[in-house]
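#lab-general

N.A. 3:47 PM
ok so I finally got the sequence cleaned up, no stray characters, all 127 residues accounted for. can someone with queue access submit it? mine expired

B.Y. 3:52 PM
send it over

N.A. 3:53 PM
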Amino acid sequence: MSKKERYSLEFIVKSSPKILFNCISTPSGLSEWFSDDVNVRDQIYTFLWDGDEQQAELLDIKPNESIRFHWLDDEDPDTYFEFRIAKDDLTGEIALVVTDHADKAEKDEAMRLWNSQIHDLMHVIGS
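B.Y. 4:20 PM
back already:
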């Protein structure tokens, strides 16, 4: 049983799913808003921030829909972070749903970080 709590955040994005998916799944797209640089080898993504690096394993990818990763330094095998693109059938609005896991004491801080990161993404795509 996971010690961490799963949570999801939803952001309305004024972008096509294809453009948005490129930003959340490719090294060049991710390095524009998520980290300083991204390298991929096999199924391992290496994210670089100010000289520090963190690696995540690609768990699942559905083109133009979702991508899911697991941080390699997270000992809990049930945790992941995921970007999912959702389209409202009624309004046609595109939403980016971010799902992640955090310890209860760190959840608010983690959610603030995601809000900041997604704000950067919105700026990059002009949304």
